[in-house]
Model the fold of this input.
Amino acid sequence: MPTDTSALDLILRADPALVGIVRLSLLVSLSAVVLAALIGIPLGALIALTRFPGRNGAIVLLNALMGLPPVVVGLLVYLMLSRSGPLGSWGILFTPQAMIIAQSILVMPIVAALARQTIEDLWEEYRDELAALNVGPVRRIFTLIYDARFSLLTALLAGFGRAAAEVGAVIIVGGNIDGFTRTMTTAIALETSKGDLPLAIGLGMVLISLVIVVNALAWGARRASERYAG
Amino acid sequence: MLTRRILIALTAAAFIAGAPAFAQDKSIVVSSTTSTQDSGLFGHLLPLFKKKTGIDVKVVSQGTGQALDTGRRGDADVVFVHARGQEEKFVADGFGVKRYPVMYNDFVLIGPKSDPAGVKGTKDIVAALKTIKSKNAAFISRGDKSGTHSAELNLWKVAGIDIAADKGPWYKEIGQGMGAALNTASASNAYVLADRGTWLSFKNRGELDIVVEGDNRLFNQYGVILVNPAKHANVKKSEGQAFIDWIVSPEGQKAIADYKINGQQLFFPNATAQGV
Amino acid sequence: MRAPSSDLPLMLEDVSILAREVTILDKITLKIAAGEPTILVGPNGSGKTTLLRAAMGLIAPTRGRVTWGGREEVPPARRSIVFQRPAMLMRSATGNLTYALAAARVPRAERKARADELLDLVGLAGRGDRPARRMSGGEQQRLALARALAKDPDILLLDEPTASLDPAAIKALEDIIRNVAARGIKVVMSTHNLGEARRLAGEIVLLHRGRIVETGDAQSFFTQPKTEDARRFVAGELLV
Ligand SMILES: Nc1ncnc2c1ncn2[C@@H]1O[C@H](COP(=O)(O)OP(=O)(O)OP(=O)(O)O)[C@@H](O)[C@H]1O
Ligand SMILES: [Mg+2]
Done:
């Protein structure tokens, strides 16, 4: 670990440890968002378009899960993936894969809940038109997802922001192993505890920039959707 | 349709790209304590071991209690901690194969330079703690069941103080690691018991300094244990044992002695001794 | 002249529709055959929209039946509707049309050219790139008409299509409707504009409180109404 260097120095010199940490954070959080999208969007669409007993309960639950505390998710995934847990044979505790799973569980409810809301609102509006255009059920789902694309993108970006910024889940299931499962947030926690503030601040600056970029993208998505939405 | 296909391709790519990049074929997981990790010792030892054997060591650092629990659950191959009683129980319960003493370091009492309790200069840790208690001087406890925490509790007991019953607002348990405890002490000008390694590598000292050191009762023995493959078949027995064999070998012991911060040796190898 | 599986004639046989115990349509029997446009008139809330939706197959009658070309439960492949408040998809004007063309199984290669023809037909040529939901009310109404024509229907149901149009646009739309009718498409349209009804109608259907009060050709409906209600409606005195 570098000593006596300023935070900005570390960033400008593209310190390899710092670059590796940023790369892993992005890889883990992006993969988690992709996984959450693959599950959350169809799930949201399904709940939006079907009626079944307990549906209102499912919606309330989904909305509540959006606020899942990361440490709780981390603990649950830890217990599942531990060698003594039901999925222990996978042997992926303390690996990036475990972190991806934990973060996708954190992000999935956000994606599913927002997808459900957007698709249901859109469906309310489109229902008669699509029926009149003789659109079948499969094409209907793809139409709704496509037309909700900007809102869904916003949801995915929100999910990415949550994943990239959380520390509770990844530190438990990843173990914060140097060069292997150390992300920006866990490194910040560690370096702060070691009193090594420059590296912590450097990573914090990268993380804040990332959050700003994500929000700029979300804003762009909103602008694009305003162009199409009346 | 197209977006979906791209998404699927991306996930697959993430997992495929992720897996080989991270999965070294020869690697072990060592669960250890935050103090060992924070002191920077592993950063010094592991490259030497890797060069010699090609084995990658992944260190998960937790409090001693949690580190032993990680081993108990079979999530680590080796545990490397400092709480002799708990370690011996770990082996006796069949979770570990054998405990090897490795090295010791010592605890130091850290406090504000202004020394509000007036304990600076004494070598007697027990007397110092009694004075802090009688003057209600601010004291930060790890409170996280770590090796350092149990050492602190033990010293209170030796001082004849039932800290669980006698603690007042002056005594704060933060339930976090060594670094966090030092940060808290630094921010609130409090006394805190720390291991010397973490203290030496700690950078955010503020007004803190060592006030008591050198008492025999402040020595802290580290042990290393292979998790029992008979309990958890996934334990990488030969690689884990290779790590233990190396660290207690003359070569490993020398590497420990060679680790210095600002010219100060942090850990004192004593693998051949019976341990403190 | 059309395919044998035509949706014509469209028959409503003793159709009643109830919503929460309230009768919205009451024992409607109506045969809609090829020919001049059929115009639905009647005060607000008399059931015009409901009748058109039943004719489209969007709501099932509580009692009675609706048939298309003698068959029940025919998917809406050969009939179209323009709603009173059409919903535009979140795409460009052209995107809305190519979507409807795709739903009508028009081969991909032909869609762009067909969409341009349709835009041209409703007087929106050159505005295809605009986001449909950002267009004016009148433009959306015309785009909805173009979209309804994408599947080349046997029957075109129009629910007050000129309600938000300026006088010139009304004239243009009436021309399009005549044009469409001349191509052999059966137009069924509701309107509150009696002048328009008179100009377009072959047949007039007067609805009041969910019942058909009077049907007849436009000429005699306006000059010699057979019922007292029809006379009062033409005079502007009939209320729900
Ligand atoms: N789903 C429903 N539930 C309850 N009442 C309904 C429902 N749909 C329609 N109605 C009622 O049925 C009556 C007929 O409605 P409809 O929309 O067919 O009238 P309309 O002739 O098209 O009127 P307007 O000229 O105002 O468009 C109205 O009184 C309306 O409130
Ligand atoms: Mg109406």
Remarks:
- Chains C and B do not touch (no CB pair under 8 Å).
- Chain C has one domain: 10-234.
- Residues 167-182 of chain C form the longest helix (16 residues).
- Chain C has a mean pLDDT of 91.
